[in-house]
Amino acid sequence: MTTTPMDDKASALRQAMTGALVKAGTINSKAVETAFATVARDRFAPEATMEKAYDPDDVVRTKTNEHGITISSVSAPRIQAMMLEQAGLQKGQKAGEVGSGGYNAALMAELVGPDGTVTTIDIDADVTDRARKLLDENGYGRVKVLTVDGEGGIPDAGLLDRLIVTVGAWDIPPAWTDQLNDGGRIVVPLRMRGLTRSVAFDRDGDRLVSRSAEMCGFVTMQGAGEHQERLLLLRGKEIALRFDEGWPEDPDALNGVFDTERAEVWSGVTVGLREPFTGLQMWLATALDGFSLMSVDEDLDTGLVTPQNKSACMSLLDGASLAHMTLRRDGDRAEFGAHGYGPAAEAVAQALAEEIRVWDRDHRSSEPVIYAYPASTPEAELPAGRVITKRHRRIVISWPHEDQASQSTTDREK
């Protein structure tokens, strides 16, 4: 079979992308490396230029809603490689995918081989029609494609060894775990108190136990499993507090909170400018009862607040007062601090800064274990940690040395 200059270009870009993911440590197994070097991603992303298709960090958007919001995409190669490594697919396994696109299913098919099976599903017929067409055109006709609501699991697939969810999920419906072999694994971008982590869970009887959790972002799930966060808008629409679980008892108490004098508290904890601190984010979400995420509208930003991250800043709400995390730079490092507002501005800023110190002292080099139990599980049967009660599951975020950290607390969905 002869190759064209475009084929040669695609091959070179594919090898470069794969090499970059290996060098970064995102790909760390030969099996995943071979799959990425084999599947022609550009053929599964005809909406993009070849260079964009093979950019390790680029998402290819394939469908938007009437508001221009992306509702289907081909995820960035870095995220797909990360999740496939988390899944640990083996030859001959039965695998399923919730959230279709075509490319990821082709990678999964390479990993399970001709003796394994892959079924990919999506709620949107436009998405599954596209996936079916591209899979057939590129030699992956053995992948089964179904148009169903993912909340109900994968029809006629039997028990699965691996299930990969490629849409942002707020909960883990029973159908997903019921369909796993005992000891089987699900990799799911799970939203917990507003933070999304790709969690690799192994099934252990009726509970799930995490093996790893990695930062990620995905379009949100549609259908029966859809769950929208709630926004509390302040200063018109300039500032929003985002709540995934819970809601302030008296949201009106925060009216005018940013008109009060600001308190500044610095933690003494520093981080390199390129050093990730995703563990700190998860620790604050675990430790703080009044945790929320603050965002600032770029078009309305007056510069009144200086959050560490204007799209999703760790914040603490306490009645009529709140504090948010901030940073101040010193050379190639930055110090974490807190800005407080309201009648208890100093106290709430001190509380946020103290939890930053606790993370630095007790948890900076550790990661939590995340459990998912049936929602009916009594409190007494749960491990120590932050408990987030959802419709189907009680998620427990449990850190090492929990006895040295903040007292275990429970969120209940309102």
Key descriptive features of the protein:
single chain; 414 residues; alpha+beta; Rossmann fold; 11-stranded mixed beta sheet; 7-stranded antiparallel beta sheet; disordered C terminus
SSE arrangement:
Elements: H1 5-23, H2 30-38, H3 50-53, E1 60-64, E2 70-74, H4 77-87, E3 94-98, H5 103-112, E4 117-122, H6 125-137, E5 144-147, E6 160-165, H7 174-178, E7 180-192, E8 195-204, E9 207-215, E10 230-234, E11 239-243, E12 263-272, H8 278-287, E13 291-296, E14 313-318, E15 321-330, E16 333-341, H9 345-363, E17 369-374, E18 386-389, E19 393-398, E20 410-412
Parallel strand pairs: 3-4, 3-6, 4-5, 6-7, 18-20
Antiparallel strand pairs: 1-2, 7-8, 8-9, 9-17, 10-11, 11-13, 12-16, 13-14, 14-15, 15-16, 17-19, 18-19
Helix pairs in contact: 1-2, 2-5, 8-9
